[in-house]
Amino acid sequence: MDAEPRRGASQFGTPATLRPRLNFGKLDVNSLKRYQRVHKLVGVPQTASKEQLVSAVTRHFSAQVVSDELKVIAAFVTAVQKRHPLSKK
Fold first, then answer.
1. Is residue 56 part of a domain?
2. What was the pLDDT predicted at 21?
3. What φ, ψ does residue 9 adopt, rounded to 5°?
4. Phi, psi values for residue 15, rounded to 5°
5. What pLDDT score was predicted for residue 6?
6. 11 is a domain residue
């Protein structure tokens, strides 16, 4: 018997609001600045403190929506395999 997922649940049966908590404060300033540059975060001054960068990165990351989780995972695995092919013996 196939049941419809409950409202607020993902296709895997876990609440959509449950997301892993990431502590961006553990990243160094250079990594935070790289994230800022790559994702073109606006409203963050060039002289931003680490705390300001952590706040901006956290807001940006939290706002991201993944529309097709399986497609994203498959693309990630493919990218990793292309960068680090398994050695053939």
1. yes
2. 80
3. -110, 150
4. -55, 135
5. 41
6. no
Distance CA 77, CA 85 (A): 11
Does 47 reside within a domain?
A: yes
Write down the residue that tokens 């876990």 correspond to.
Answer: 14
Question: What band does 18 get if pLDDT is binned at 50, 70 and 90?
Answer: low
Angle at 24 between CA 81 and CA 53, to 5 degrees: 115
pLDDT tens by residue, 28-75: 999 999 999 999 999 999 899 999 999 999 999 999 888 898 999 999
DSSP letters, 14-67, are SBTT------GGGS-HHHHHHHHHHTT--S--TT--HHHHHHHHHHHHHT---S
Distance separating the N- and C-terminal Cα atoms of the chain: 46
Tell me the one-letter amino acid at 87. S
